Amino acid sequence: MATTREHLTIHDAGAMSADLAIETRGLRKVYGDVVAVEDLTLSVLQGEVFGFLGPNGAGKSTTVKMLTGLVRPTSGHARLLGRKLGDRQAKRQIGYLPELFRFHDWLTAREFLDVHGRLAGMSREERQARIPEALELVGLAGREDDRLRTFSKGMQQRAGLAQALLHRPRLVFLDEPTSALDPIGRRIVRDVIRQLRASGVTVFLNSHLLSEVEMVCDRVAILNRGVVVAAGRLDELRPQGVSVSLRLGGWNDAVAAVVQEFGALDAHEDLGAGVALISVQLPAEEVVAGLVDRLVAAGAAIYEVTPRRETLEELFVSLVDQTDGMDVGR
Amino acid sequence: MMPLLIARLTLQEAVRRKLVWVVLLLSAVFIVLYIYGFRVVVDDVEAFNAQRGGAPREIIPREVQLSVMVMLGLWTVNFLAGVMTIFAAVGAISSEIEAGTLHVIATKPLSRWEIIAGKYFGFLAMIVIYIGLMFASVIATARLVGDYTPPNMLTGLALMVLVSTILLSLTMLGSTIFSTMANGVVVFMLYGLALTGGLVEQIGTSLDNDTMIRLGVASSILVPSDAMWKLASYKVQPAIAVSFTGPNPFGTIVPPSDLAVRYAIFYCIAIVLASVFVFQRRDI
Is the model's pLDDT at A15 over the cut of 60? Predict the structure, then answer.
């Protein structure tokens, strides 16, 4: 699995393949003079949780709307589950929770799911069996006979999630699914996403909450101003290596020489009495233990070791800043 | 199957949102007032005739007086039904897009034409039931209070349903193009234009002014609702009442032809197809 994933980078415009859940080539949407999505080419594998990131207004929701058939692309091609956009068979197998989740709030939760189950083509028996399950899944069991109007925003969003999962779709689009949720609601959504992955469902997660994306996504694409500025597996996207900061006593030239054998010395601060705070760039986290051993052997006293990986957030901010700074060709 | 589900949802919404109950309550008030008014007119006519001591010829025949009363009742029903239709359907598509409730429906495995068809037939069912009930109330009043039965009732009823169907079609098309607010303005202006056009045509007929008649015909081509009402009113009046009252804002002495009816039906179909065409291309 890992090898197939590796050679399928996001800009791979190879043959339209059946094991892709989503495939787009040169997808573009222009509203009047405003380019919402510039030129989107991406592939999402079946069964993966794909994070679609970007600042507000980057074109994330427009992309999802194009893929779900709400918005007509200005140009470009896209296929969902191997079928062209708008195909009824493909639509039967997708679930969608919109960013602006508003439902017919004069329906009760059960009626709401019943209507949407029927719209999705479920039989009466399937609906009867599935509706309680779906409500349970999103933590709304016991509220089935209350009208949606009486629900809080967060509960409505979870009802919307139940709607998206009700018909056991193979591909689920979640557009900012935790925007109205409290920490417990967020955990429910994370658990649901993990369960979906475990059962082989592809999840396309639109979000600007990077920490959430980091927790659940296999691969991500970062969108800015309608263009993908980075894409790949999270560990590929983050810079290689690790930055370690050390606080140690007995700092002298011999100890410094040991450090330099392992990696570049980024920073050095003398804290007095032979104690120094240093920062060193190492090729991998595994090297840290060896470095500590050698430092101790060279007579240094180790007070503190803190490895620091670059977070997705730092990557995100630097990429967005970079692309904002340059002319993106419009 | 899918259109039926959407139609049911449309009706359910009208009931749950209390639209249906408010309309029925106000309509009941109208019917009560109408029965009272009818009673007064019938008493007047009879008192007047009794005073004349059974003279061989009435000044205005009883049949004409009661026919005019029926006409006023049906005109009001027609007007109320038209207003209700426009208000009920003004945001059929647009308000659902504005609210965002359409997003989870339009992404389901159904075509956009099925959404239009479902909503259209849902509203049409409301129109048929409403006009049917109100028409029956007016006729029942005439029969029970005045012992008078107008001619061609079913034709009249069908034509009145056609009037509201024309307005429904226009409102539907507008709601796929405009915002709810703009659609309300546009459709009411067209409705007003049709009413005024009809009035201009009647005045033109009285004054024998060809330009005014042509203006009226042009408005009927643009929005044939008032022409269909004129035909309905012509059909449900006895010939004596038509010639007695002459051209007036509620009726006509020159009924629109069968061709006009066929045109109105074709008009509805064309407008609904246009709304499907527009909606299929619309970004939600």
Answer: no
ipTM value for the complex:
0.87
pTM of structure: 0.85
Measured in angstroms, the CA of B21 and the nearest CA of chain A are apart by 15
Burial A302-330 (b: 16+ CB within 10 A, else e): eeeeeeeeeebeebbeebbeebeeeeeee
Indicate yes or no: CB of B104 within 8 angstroms of CB of A115.
no
First to last CA, chain A: 38
Mention every residue, 6+ apart, whose C-beta is less than 8 A from residue A201: A47, A169, A170, A171, A172
pLDDT score of A327 more than 70:
no
The answer for residues whose C-beta is within 8 angstroms of residue A27's C-beta and 6 or more apart is: A37, A39, A40, A41, A63, A66, A73, A75, A76, A77, A78
Q: How many CB atoms lie within 10 A of CB B156?
A: 24
Contact present, A41 and A26 (Cβ < 8 Å): yes
Burial class (CB in 10 A: 0-12, 13-18, 19+), A56: exposed
Mean pLDDT of the region A244-259: 86
Question: Residue A234's Cα: distance from chain center in Å?
Answer: 9
For B74, other C-beta atoms within 10 Å of its C-beta total 26
Report chain A residues whose CB lies below 8 A from the CB of B11.
none
With beta carbons under 8 A apart, name residues in chain B contacting A115: 5, 9
In sequence order, which residues have a C-beta less than 8 Å from that of residue B238 and are 6 or more positions away? B63, B64, B67, B150, B151
Chain B, residues 85-144, CB within 8 A of chain A, namely 99-101, 103-111
- Residue written as tokens 């009823």? B157
A71 touches chain B (CB under 8 A): yes
Contacting residues of A for B106, CB less than 8 Å apart: 69-70
Chain A residue numbers with beta carbons less than 8 Å from the beta carbon of B16 are 106-107
Q: Do A89 and B2 touch (CB under 8 A)?
A: no
CB pairs under 8 A between A and B: 67
Considering only CB atoms, which chain B residues are within 8 Å of A106? Answer: 12-13, 16-17
**Helix B2-16 / helix A109-119 crossing angle, nearest 10 deg:** 160
In sequence order, which residues have a C-beta less than 8 Å from that of residue B246 and are 6 or more positions away?
B206, B253
Q: How far, in Å, CA of A292 to CA of A269, rounded?
A: 18
List, for residues A194-241, the tens digit of each pLDDT value: 999 999 999 999 988 888 888 899 999 999 888 888 888 887 877 667
- The span from the CA of B104 to the CA of A161, in Å, is 11
Q: Output the six-digit token pair for A216.
A: 């659940």
CA B33 and chain centroid, separation? 20
A111-139 pLDDT tens trace: 999 999 999 999 999 999 999 999 999 99
Residues 92 through 111 of chain A touching chain B, CB cutoff 8 Å: 92, 94, 96-98, 100-104, 106-107
Q: Using the CB atoms, write b or e for A247-270: b if 16+ within 10 Å.
A: bbebbeeebeebbeebbeeeeeee
Q: In 3-state terms, what secondary structure has residue A73?
A: coil
* Identity of the residue in A70, A88, A100 whose CB atom sits nearest the CB atom of B106: A70
- The DSSP symbol for A311 reads P
